[in-house]
C-alpha cells in the first residue's frame, strides 16, 4: 500500500501589527492628507508611526490588503454621529441662539480642552522640562505640570527635593481658573527656553548594532577572541554585541532544514507570538518549514491571540533567537552562512 501523500502545509497569513498597519494606510494617502492626520497625533505616536513608515515602505501587496481589511473591520461600528461632532454642535447652537448667547454657554457644555498653547511641552525633552520647572516661579511651574501628562509630570519633578515636590503639587491641585493672558505669558517663557536649547541635531554614530555587524564580518576565531577580550573589560556590552550579531529577522537567512530544527524546539505558544510579530515573508517561511498539522495548529493559535503587547512579542522572538544561537553553539546548525561565524 502506498504511503499517503501529504498536502503542502497550510500557511495562514501572519497578522500585521497596529503600527505597521497605520503606517501603510498613512502612506496610501497623498502627502497633504497624511500631514493633516499627523498634526493630530501625540509625540509618542508620531515617533512610533515614523519608524513604522520606513518598514512599511517595503510592504507587499498582501500587507496592504491586510492593513485595509483591518481598517475596515475596526471601523464597522464607527458612528457617523462622531464625525465632526464638536463643530456641528457649535454651529447648531449658534444658529439657534445667536453667536453671543451660544458663546456664553459653550464653556459649560463643551468637554474641557487641553491647554493648546502649552502643547509644545509634549514635544520637549523631559530634561528640558525639568530644568524649566526648577528655574521658574513655583506658580508658573504648577501650571506647566498641569499641562503635562501625569507620567511626564512625575518624571519632571522626580529630581526635586520632597519639599519642592510637595509645594508644586499643592499649587497644582489648587490652581483653579487661569487667565488667558497668563497662559500666553507662560507660552512665551516656554518658547524662549526652547529657543535657547535649540541647536543642530546631533548625528548618531556607532553603537552596539554597528559593532555587532563589524564583528559578524570577521572570521569565527577572530570574532570569538575579540568578544572574549571585550567581555573582560565590559561583560554587559560584549553580551549585547554578541546578541546583536544574530537577531530574530536573521532567521530568514537559515535554510528550511535548519529553521525547522529551531522551530521544533520552541513552545507552540511562544512560537505563535513570535510569528504574529514577524514580517509577512519571514512568517510564511517559518510556517512553511512545519508539517501541515503543526502549521495549522500555530495558525489557530495566532488567530486566537487577539491584540498582544509588543513586549510579549519581543520576549517570544528573543526566546526563539536564543534557541537558534544555542543550537549554533552546539554545532547543530550554522548561522550567518555568508561568513564562517557560528
Features:
single chain; 342 residues; mainly alpha; Annexin V, domain 1; 4 domains; 65% helix; 0% strand; extended; disordered C terminus
Structural notes for this entry:
The protein has 342 residues and is mostly helical. It has helices at 18-28, 31-38, 43-56, 61-74, 85-97, 99-109, 126-135, 138-147, 150-157, 162-173, 180-197, 208-216, 220-233, 235-244, 256-263, 268-276, 280-288, 292-305, 310-329. It folds into four domains: 18-78, no CATH class; 79-113; 114-197, Orthogonal Bundle (Annexin V, domain 1), CATH 1.10.220; 208-329, Annexin V, domain 1, CATH 1.10.220.30. Helix 5 packs across helix 6, helix 7 crosses helix 9 and helix 13 (220-233) runs antiparallel to helix 14. It is extended, with a radius of gyration of 27 Å. The model is unreliable at 1-13 and 337-342 (pLDDT under 50).
Put the structure in a nutshell.
The protein is mainly alpha-helical and 342 residues long. It is 65% helix and 0% strand. Helix 1 packs across helix 4, helix 16 packs across helix 18 and helix 16 crosses helix 19.
